[in-house]
Design a protein that fits this description.
Layout (H helix, E strand, L loop, with lengths): L2 E7 L4 H12 L4 E8 L5 H8 L4 E3 L7 H12 L6 E4 L8 H5 L10 E5 L11 H8 L3 E8 L9 E8 L6 H24 L7 H8 L2
Parallel strand pairs: 1-2, 1-4, 2-3, 4-5
Antiparallel strand pairs: 5-6, 6-7
Bound molecules: 5-O-phosphono-beta-D-ribofuranosylamine (GRF).
C-alpha cells in the first residue's frame, strides 16, 4: 500500500532529500504531496522543487501561532494525507494542530526524527547535549508525535558510537548518516503496515 506524505521542515532539508530520493528509487512506496516550511529561506523548499514536489512557505512573522497553524491546516486539508512527516520542523505543534491527524486508536499521524536515543537528550540541541555529556553511544529516534515535546511512541531507534577522537562535527556527521537511512526505512515500514504500537505504550499514552 502506498502512503501519501506531507512534510514540514524549517531548514536545510537533508532528511527531506533522503526521503524524496528513496521515493524516487522505489525503496519507499509513498507519494510526497506537499512540503511546507515556516521560513521562506528554508533550503527544504529548493530540495522539494528539485524533486518536483509542491512546496509552500508559511511565514510565521507577525501572526500568532494559532493563526499560523490554521493557515497550514487549511493547506493540508486540500490534500489526502496519511502521515505528516516532520523533517527538522523547529516549531512545537499545538494539540489543536495534532488532533487534526488523530487516527482511530487515538495516535497522531505525525512522525518526527530526533537525533538522540529518547528519552535521553530531548530538546533542540540533542547532538550538542549528548556530545557534551560525553556519551559513548548515541543514536537516532523516529517516533510518533504526541502532545509533549520529543515524546510519543517510538517507532524505531538506531545507535551509533562516539569515537574517542570525534569532534562535534564528526559526531553529527555519523548521526546524520544514520538519520538519512533510518527515516526512509521507518516510513517504508509504515507504508507496508509493518509497525505496531505496543499495547504497553498505548496504555502509558492514555495515562498522560
Ligand atoms: C535533524 O538532525 C533532525 O534529526 C532534527 O533536525 C535536523 C534537521 O536536519 N529534528 P535537516 O533539515 O533534515 O537537514
Amino acid at each position: 500500500m502506498s502512503i501519501n506524505l506531507a512534510f514540514m521542515a524549517s531548514g536545510r532539508g537533508s532528511n527531506l532529500a533522503a526521503i524524496l530520493e528513496s521515493i524516487k528509487t522505489g525503496d519507499l512506496d509513498a507519494k510526497a504531496v506537499i512540503v511546507i516550511t515556516n521560513d521562506v529561506k528554508a533550503k527544504a523548499l529548493e530540495v522539494a522543487r528539485t524533486y518536483g514536489v509542491e512546496a509552500k512557505a508559511f511565514n510565521q512573522d507577525s501572526i500568532s501561532r494559532d493563526e499560523h497553524e490554521k493557515l497550514i491546516l487549511d493547506e493540508l486539508a486540500q490534500h489526502k494525507i496519511d502521515f505528516v512527516v516532520l523533517a527538522g520542523y523547529m516549531r512545537i505543534l499545538s494539540p489543536t494542530f495534532l488532533r487534526a491527524f488523530k487516527d482511530e486508536r487515538g495516535f497522531y499521524r505525525v512522525v518526527n526524527i530526533h537525533p538522540s536515543l529518547l528519552p535521553s537528550f530531548a530538546g533542540k540541541q540533542a547532538y550538542e547535549d549528548a556530545f557534551a555529556y560525553g556519551v559513548k553511544l548515541s543514536g537516532i529516534t523516529v517516533h510518533l508525535v504526541d502532545e509533549l515535546v520529543d515524546h510519543g511512541p517510538i517507532l524505531a531507534q538506531e545507535a551509533f558510537v562516539r569515537l574517542d577522537d570525534d569532534t562535534i562535527e564528526t559526531f553529527k556527521a555519523r548521526g546524520l548518516a544514520v538519520e538519512h537511512k533510518l527515516y526512509p526505512q521507518v516510513l517504508q515500514m509504515l507504508s507496508a503496515g509493518k509497525i505496531q504500537i505496543s499495547s504497553n505504550r498505548q496504555k502509558e499514552l492514555t495515562e498522560i
